[in-house]
Amino acid sequence: QQQVKQSPQSLIVQKGGIPIINCAYENTAFDYFPWYQQFPGKGPALLIAIRPDVSEKKEGRFTISFNKSAKQFSLHIMDSQPGDSATYFCAASMQTGANNLFFGTGTRLTVIP
Amino acid sequence: NAGVTQTPKFQVLKTGQSMTLQCAQDMNHEYMSWYRQDPGMGLRLIHYSVGAGITDQGEVPNGYNVSRSTTEDFPLRLLSAAPSQTSVYFCASSYYFGTANTEAFFGQGTRLTVV
C-alpha cells in the first residue's frame, strides 16, 4: 500500500498564484521528508526537505509546512512562475531505513502565464 | 561533474529477453538504489546497496537482480523481461552515514518497453 499519500494529482494555477500540495503518512518512524521536482524527461531533483523537529522550512519561494501530530506535510510555492511547471513528489524515509525513500504518487503542476 | 549516469536512455525488449541497465556515479557515494516510475504510482524502490558487496531488496524486487562490486557501479539486471516491467527506471545515489538521511541524486532515467 502507498505509505505516503499525495494530493492533488494535478494542479493548474495562474502566474503569481500559490499552489499547495499536500501529503500524509502513517508510519511514525519516518523522520525525513523531502520534496522532489521532476521536469519531463529528467530525473527527480531535491527541492527542499524537512525533519520533524521543526514545523516550517522556507527556501526561496518554496515552503514546507509540517504537522507532526496530524502526520501531514505540505509544499507551498509562493509567486509561482511558468518555469515551476513540473511534477512534484513528496517522500519520506527513516533514519534506520538506509536512505530508502517512500514516494507519494506525484502532482503535475501547470503555471499559466 | 557527471553525477549519476544511466545507460541506455531508451530500450525495447521482447518478452523473455534479459538485459542489464547500467548505473555509475562519480561522487563516491556509499548508497545506491534503483526505482521504477509508473504513471499514478510515484517511484517505488526495487533494490538498494549501502556499500560494495552489500545489496538488499526494496518494495518491488521480483524479476530483478543487482550486484555491487565497486562503489561506482550498480547495475540492474532483468532476468526474463515481462510486459509488466515496462516502466521508467531511475538510479539514485547518496552519502550514507547510517544515522541521518542525506540528499539523493538521481540519474536521467532509462525508459524500458517490453513487447
Which assembly state applies to the chains in this document?
A: heterodimer
The total beta strand count of chain A reads: 11
Q: Based on CA inertia axes, which overall geometry of chain B fits?
A: globular
Question: What is the structural class of chain A?
Answer: mainly beta
Tell me the number of strands of chain B: 11
| Structural class estimated from helices and strands of chain B | mainly beta
Helix percentage range of chain B: under 10%
Biggest sheet descriptor of chain A: 6 strands, mixed
Tally the helices of chain A: what do you get?
A: 0
Distance N terminus to C terminus of chain A? Answer: 37 Å
* Biggest interface between chains: A-B, 28 and 29 residues
**Cα-atom radius of gyration of chain A:** 13 Å
The portion of residues forming beta strands of chain B comes to: over 45%
Give average pLDDT of chain A, whole number: 95
Query: Secondary-structure element sequence of chain B?
Result: EEEEEEEEEEE
Summarize the structure.
Chain A has 113 residues and is mainly beta. Helices cover 0% and strands 51% of the residues of chain A.
Care to describe what's here?
The complex is a heterodimer of chains A (113) and B (115). With 113 residues, chain A is mostly beta strands. Chain A is built from no helices and 11 strands. In chain A, strands 2, 4, 5, 9, 10 and 11 form a 6-stranded mixed sheet that branches. A 5-stranded antiparallel sheet of chain A has the order 1-3-8-7-6, with no helix packed on it. Chain A starts with a strand and ends with a strand. The mean pLDDT of chain A is 95. In chain B, the strands form 2 sheets. In chain B, strands 2, 4, 5, 6, 9, 10 and 11 form a 7-stranded mixed sheet that branches. Chain B has a 4-stranded antiparallel sheet with strand order 1-3-8-7, with no helix packed on it. In chain B, strand 5 (42-51) and strand 6 form a beta hairpin. The model of chain B has no long low-confidence stretch (mean pLDDT 94). Chain A binds chain B through residues 2, 4, 6, 9, 31-32, 34, 36, 41-46, 49, 89, 93-95, 98-106, and chain B through 4, 31, 33, 35, 40-45, 48, 50, 56, 58, 90, 92, 94, 96, 99-109.
